[in-house]
Amino acid sequence: MIASYGEVLFLAALVFAAGAVCAASRRNLIMILVGVEIMLNAAGIAFVGASLRWSILDGQVFVIFIMGFAAAEVSIGLALVTFLHKRTGSVNSDTYSSLKG
Question: Mean pLDDT of all residues in the chain?
Answer without folding.
Answer: 89
